[in-house]
Amino acid sequence: MNAKILKKKTLAAAICLTVAGFGAAGSAQATAIAFAENRLTNFAITSSPGSNISVTGTPQRNTSNFATFTGFPGAVFQDPVPLGNASDALEAFSGTGPVPGQNNYVFLAGSSGGMVGSRGDSDTAAGNPFAPGGVPQVNNVAEARVTTGAGKAGSSGGMNTANAAIAFSFVLAGPGTITFNFSDVYRYYASTTTNGEGAQGTIANIFTINDAAGNTVFNDSQAVLNVNCASNSGVPSVCDSGLLSGTFSDTSGLLSAGNYTVSLLTSSAATVTSLAAVPEPATLLLLGGGLGAMAFVRRRSAAHC
To answer: Cβ distance 158 to 143 under 8 Å?
Structure first.
């Protein structure tokens, strides 16, 4: 075959490979997702016989939601109320959406139409932890999702949290112990698909008793309910606990008569980060092949000059 014709065909093939590579780089799409939900039911506190708890002051509960996503306004909402009343802070959202509505705990990770942005939402139903049945529901959910590629190169992620807190003071009339009980439905999830992405889903549940001097005399943060799940640059591609449930309880040591404060913090958090879109390995092979062919043509051309 004529050397000039061969050179032209090889150059054309190199250009096609290179264009195909750039086309693949432009169309590749990656998504980093983080999710956490934490839904308690029947949170109740009891004291040992004869210890006689008396609540003092104005007990409080508070739901607080936070969301931020680079390039969009952040959002923070809180709803502190007296113990016994319902607390339902507005859902915080930052990003382009679509976003689930208030008190919606739908997991969007598997949906191609899932939101781009971050959200945090929490609520507690009316109820007193010392009364029969306790607090019927304490819910929080956090979710964050960022998409790169397909014209979104350089987009970055966000973080968000949803917290539900119950705190109050009480007097223990005589020596005794304090026991708490609740059930929980929970899930934590993180997934990444390409280099430069990070995702983290976290749940936390901490029950604390402090004495009048502020010293912590009892703390419960069971490992199974205080969990971090992470994925970075596709390793692992998915970290998913699945939907779990259980019933939990714990009892303090013997407490002296006196004044105490009790707090329950239940929280969900989700964080995603993403650098500029990075070509997938197959794309890099296409680009490398195209550029390599062009270099070969240049060498052949120089040899025949």
So the answer is: no
Q: Any bridge partners for residue 53, and if so which?
A: 172
- Cα separation, 273 vs 31, in Å, equals 10
Helices (H), the chain: 3-27, 281-303
pTM over 0.90: no
Nearest to 162 by CA among 241, 62, 236: 62
Does pLDDT of 219 surpass 60?
yes
- For residues 89 and 79, the answer to whether their CB atoms sit within 8 Å is yes
Alpha-carbon distance of 232 to 160, in angstroms, equals 18
Q: Of 244, 167, 258, 280, nearest to 211 (Cα)? A: 258
Residue 277: how many other CB atoms lie within 10 Å = 24
Cα–Cα distance for residue pair 133/184, rounded to 1 Å: 15
Q: pLDDT digit string (tens) for 251-299?
A: 999 999 999 988 889 999 988 887 644 444 433 333 333 334 334 334 4
Query: What is the separation, in whole angstroms, between the first and last Cα of the chain?
Result: 18
In degrees, rounded to 5, the angle at the alpha carbon of residue 212 between the alpha carbons of residues 210 and 214 is 50
Amino acid letter, 277: A
Q: Find residue 66's DSSP bridge partners.
A: 76, 161
Residue type, 15: I
Return d(Cα 89, Cα 57) in angstroms, integer. Answer: 23
Q: What is the pLDDT of residues 84-111, one digit of tens each?
A: 889 999 999 998 888 888 998 878 766 6
Helix residue spans in 150-194 (DSSP H): none
Residue 274 has a pLDDT of 76
> Encoding tokens for residue 137?
């529901």
8 A C-beta contact, residue 67 and residue 92 = yes
Cα of 280 vs its chain's centroid, Å: 25
Strand partners of residue 259: 171
Answer with the residue of higher pLDDT: 59 or 211. 211
Q: What are phi and psi of 254, to 5 degrees?
A: -65, 125
Structure tokens at 26: 């432009």
